[in-house]
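Summary for the steering committee. One of the milestones for this cycle was to obtain a three-dimensional model of the protein with KG4 bound, which we needed before selecting residues for the alanine scan. The sequence and ligand used are listed below.
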Amino acid sequence: MKTVLGIETTCDETAAAIVSVDSDGLPSIRANEVLSQIAEHAVYGGVVPEIAARAHVEVLDRLIARALERAGTRLADLDGIAVAAGPGLIGGVLVGLVTAKTLALVAQKPLLAVNHLEAHALTARLTDGLDFPYLLLLASGGHTQLVAVRGVGDYVRLGGTIDDAIGEAFDKAAKLLGLGYPGGPEVERMAEGGDPERFALPRPMLGRRQPDFSLSGLKTALRIEAERIAPLAERDVADLCAGFQAAVVDVVIDRARIALRGFADTAGRPTALVAAGGVAANGAIRRALAALAGEAGLAFVAPPLNLCGDNGAMIAWAGLERLRLGLVDDITAPARPRWPL
Ligand code: KG4
Ligand code: ZN
């Protein structure tokens, strides 16, 4: 059995988890501690980097201790210390990385410096034991990409956003409609009772041959409609949310369909269509992607909600995947604010 501690501090979640793989290669999440800083940032309507870094410092040690305790293991029993070394807010990344390096030095364990995006990309193998290759829609507050995942460390980016990330678009939509932060869950909740057809919102990039995204025009169109009918009653907000979410769903499905066509040229036949990142928590997007996968005769895989958003288990798992291949780092591993897949 191999056991790794995973540490995540790249954005506004402080997380520590323990994941093991048994001799048959079967993984188990033995502890998965996540502390969200949402309350600290909510008053500002977005993540404030300096506040985030300080909050990570305050809680990370305790969170790691709690993860070890929950898993019933000790530092000395671990086979590696994995940490998200980027991409993300540099202050937070440094907190996690310095902590991981210190633990690795003191306990004499291998350090595994994991790419946060790679961890999202590999989560479907932890939860569903997927084989390579698969098509991944990675959509979070900071990232939106369609990627052919061919192996650990072997990713082909088929398309991405040329402006806002999908999660960011949800967050901005929520803010301009006076809803809370983070915006995705709020918009989804409001959209439930709304009429998606009352407002004619654009579907940017629909039909384009490259599976890229553009979301800033949709956000602007939403703002114009909201201003036109202001002041907004609850009914109006619900209809605007429903219209916005329906537009995003249409764009996502069109872009994913194009990416599926392009996939064969780079990676052959995919084993599945996978959604990851915080936006994969959206029920409407999940349902539409599942239907698209069904049409293409593919399985659809999306991690359970607690593993869609940022967490330590995905970092520990990516660490285990790298450890298996001997991809170990040392004390000089840099913190990377930018780190493309
Ligand atoms: O992966 P994640 O937890 O953090 C990073 O950005 O790395 O993703 C957070 C993002 C936020 O923008 C949030 O609004 C969005 O995911 N999100 C959603 C939903 N839940 C979270 N977007 C749409 N619908 C949701 N239900
Ligand atoms: Zn993330």
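Key point for the committee: The CA atoms of residues 2 and 21 lie 5 Å apart.
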